[in-house]
Amino acid sequence: KKYIEFIQKQFLTHKIAERCRRLREVCDNNEFTSEHRQQLFTLDRQVTEILLGAENQCSSKRQVRKLWAPALKKSGQDISYWRQRMRANGLLLEGTKDLGRRLNLPTTVQQPLTIPLCQFYHTIAWKTYNGIKKQAKEYRMKFLKEKAKEQADKGHGDVEKAIRQIRNKERIKHDYASIRRGYGISKMGLATLDVPDLESRGRKLITKADEIHAYLLQRNEKHFSQATFTTFGDAGPGFLYIDPANPESDAHIDEMQDGVFEPWESASPYVREFLDELKCTITTELDTTLHLQDFLQLFKSIPENTASSVSGLNYGHYRVLSKMDDDSIIRVLFDSCSTDDLIDLQKPVDWEVLHILGLNEHFPRAALYAPFKLGGMGCVTIHGQHVIDKILLFVHHMREQGQLKEAMLSSMSTTQIECGTSTPFFSLDATIWHNLVTKTWISHIWQESQPLGIDNKFHTECLWTPKPVRERDVSIMEVAATMHSGTQLFQINMCRLTLQVIFLFDIASVDGKRILLSYYHGKPHSESGRRTRLNWPPIGPVPKTWWTLWQSFLERWCGTALLISDPLGQWYAGAEVLTQCCCLQYNNRLIMHHKNGFYEFRPFAERSKTRFHLQAYRFHELHLIEQAKVVDITFKGESIFIIAQSDQNVIAEPRRPTVRCLQDLYRDLPPELQRIIGKLEWPEPHALLDIVDSVATGHAMGVSDGSVHEITGKATHAWILQATNGSEIRGSGPVDGTQEARTSHRAEIQGSAALLLMLSLFIKFFNIAGGKIATYCDNQSVVKKLKNGWTCWRYRHTKGPDGDLQALLRTITQQLKMQDVKQEADWVKGHQDEEKVLIALTRQATLNVRMDEEAKNAYEFPVQWQTLTFMPVLQAELCAVYIGDAKITSNIHMSLSECWHERDARDYLLKRHNITTELFQIIHWQSLRFALKKLSAHRRATAVKALHRHLPSQDKLFKQNRVTMSALCPRCLQDAETNAHIYCCPNEEALKKRKLDWIELWKQLTKCRTANVIEQTWRYYLQPLLGIPLGGSIIEGLPIAHAELEAMLNAAVAEQEAIGWDKLLLGLGSNTWKAIQAAIDSANPRPPQRSATAWMNTAIHHLIKFSLRCWKERNSMIHGRTGAEQKKIALQNVRNKISDLYQNPPTLAPQFRSIYEIPLAHRLKMSLQTVEQWLSLIAHQVKVTHHNLQCLLRKHKPIQSHFRTMRREARAQAKERTQAETPRKKHSREVQAAVREMRAKIYGKKRAPITGPPSKK
Asked: Buried b / exposed e across 767-786, counting CB within 10 Å, b at 16+?
């Protein structure tokens, strides 16, 4: 497959097919000349080169055995050593010096040498290598002959034949090594077999596959039928009882399993024993409970890969949790955890992540968790990953058919009933409503994601929600939420669930004017002659105080008379009635529907129409039910009374128009599908019939294209369906979505979806059974999806781009297959009109050029056909994830991860950089995300620290007391080394390197065709910040620009000044720079191939790389460039710290050793690693000492605090004695008086009893 793809790509690039066609036409016209012959030879040579190149790309070269020996390896390293010396002009670098030590080279050589001397030693090294290699070959041949002789002696063969066999075996092994690696095969087939030789009476080796296969078949032939004559074999006596062809064998087998089978008379004792063993039953039941240890063993044994979970990123968290001793993994995997539940797990994870990224423990967590696009490290907390994974699994199972989907729909329906609203509960405010529902796996997703603006929306046919039955009907809980909250709202909801009602209609009389007293008093449906049609969740007994609150709520809503201020209106036709009114009245006959039958209650008197007996009779006149009225009843004593009635006036449903033409099918489509198809240009009816004939005969052609406008951000598509004779139908329209979602891929895939959707309308209306259509698109990714299908849809729908349109395409293609209509997708090169005239183009290329023009014309469509941000949920995708009003169609995990900590990140940006909401809108954050994502983890950490002013500069270290000298820059010793000073240090060496990096930066920006006006502006404002003088070619002031471009440039400069020009070097650029570049590119007669967005991404990436190079140069000057220099400087710094520590010793707890235990002179002679560990130990001991002191102070309070506590208690007792006497206090005082009297009698101290509270005096 790779071989064919490579050849196809090269054939398209070099236009091989087109050149062959031209030469064929020349031959057919008898115009073949010598020039054409030369072209043919050139074409033949080029095709040969392409085929050879494909072979080299796809087929690994034949592996030659590499002769290895220790001496050969050492001589090869000698060659590498002298090559490095020659590249360094004879100097000795640190890495080369280490290699020389490993080779045990003498010290006389480990010195700077001249180039000729290095060349001399290099020549000697090569000669040594060749000599050892030749000697290794000789040893190899000697070993091969010995091995062959040994093998020949075993098989009585000759040595030459054995040598050929060994070499043949090695050749096969090396030739197929790459194939084994490609297929992941770890075992080899049988290549050699040692068998007896009948001719020589000895043994021989066979290596051919067919000979080995024939010998094994011959040897194993006697074992083929070894089970035939056993007891239950084909020829055995028991085969009759288990023969699959015998209809009675099933009964015999069941008897054997049940232990009641009686064997035949000639059965041996062994057979009887075997059958008796079948009678044994298992007495010990297998334990199917999954324990914690099972999950620990599972996650420790599963290899880590991106397919181990839906997100592909969370496996590392679970692998770490599997090593913990408690049940943390169970809580994270299956429990519904909040942030507080996982805070103890998050702290060690944060420390480990910070250590891996090279950040200290005080690094702001907001910057650590902030997404890339907001200048953060893009990490996600365990809680965030926990909920995001649940959201992805939820979407994953909702879009797949199965029992899990049905179970989740049932759970959501129950949650919807518990909320009691007609609005899907995912769209409700979770802070108000989540306390009303049962805590489930799905409600936890809603509770955690809804406060962040994440919403799960569903297609109307997917999620069940209760709908109003009558006009002006409202749900009870929506009204209750406006009057009550918290515990009161919960109690009202529990009363509603007990009554099993949702809407006002459920508790109102049938005339819609008042609330029934039975529901006011909390009585069930049967008291009013009604019944529910839902399976309600079980509710226990409700306290009486809750019913009191329910009644006060209804009185507050409808008054004490329970009259509805705005009575209910007419009934909706086809509405789902959840509470069914079972009683009907026809004249003076009361009819009740009970279960599956109708019953009649006779009137209490002959003329009575409101009072009836309790005795029920079977009702058979069912034709009268349509004329009866709906009534409400109540039971009083031995009678039934009618309290309200209604004619049940129904609002008629609008009649659905009849489908008479193809336009009617398009009209009946949902609005979202109409927008996908776009604005149509309907042809004449005969043209439609021509298209139908072309589809049926397999000659129809469809072409689609998409377009994205860089400046306005609009995206459009166009498509055409053409018959063989030129009859066609075409359409074009907008591509909806957020600014990030409007990509060329989405425009192209929507064009293909619109084309196939229109084709499905043709098939449905004209009943086309069988046919074929060829579709073309200039986007290879879309063509590949249409060719390969969606076999891995279970994973693509949450990771792939534009999952909603992919779901629609998948559904349409399945419908086409059901109608036996074949669809073949192919790629066509776009914009071929720029290279050739239209007449010379193929049919599909001409149509592609037309559709490209149609898509661009769609930019000027009316307002109703302009691009919208909001996108509804398509029926094909069933459910979708929204962040605010923006539908997430691509990379759901990345979008949710960025949204999860976005609010904290924006607060941090406001606090740290004063980036307000207005300023936030003008920054191009996507380019910052692109730049940070391309960097490695450690370089990204440095870039984030530079952006948020957390680089360990001298000024910052001095403020944190991490350096004791000063905040002066160690390079220039003039100013304090702040984050800004790093990029403008006047040190000569630093300035020289910065100028070289600045020149390299502009080489890269020029390569990506940066506009001249942007280059001059950036140079004018950035070079002073870098300490680089402006050249004479730079015009003072703003660069020259005219008209609209001048206004855009002034706006860009003003916006960048508000952001900060120093921030531009760190990735924060204005959106207007991209607009200026897009405007200049669009006016260019030869525009670049890349888009303005790609230019902005590249420019910000190179600016950040320039900033990182400045920081790297600073570290090299301060800490050394080579490993030896860095080690020397680090050792000197550590020794200075030790000297300061000995002069100013810290206060340590008594259990720690004194720092003077080892003299300073001996301490300074220790190695770098030893003294660093000792300094870390002293720092830890200082922290422990301080902590113990604080604990001691908290434990031992000063004496003043004890006196304050005694005075507080005395005042409290005195205040209590002055309060009014209650029965409990009276009894307590009587007991205290009796105790004092008893003590006085016993100890002889008489005290007057206290009969009342003391006087205030």
From this structure: ebeebbbbbbbbbeebbebb
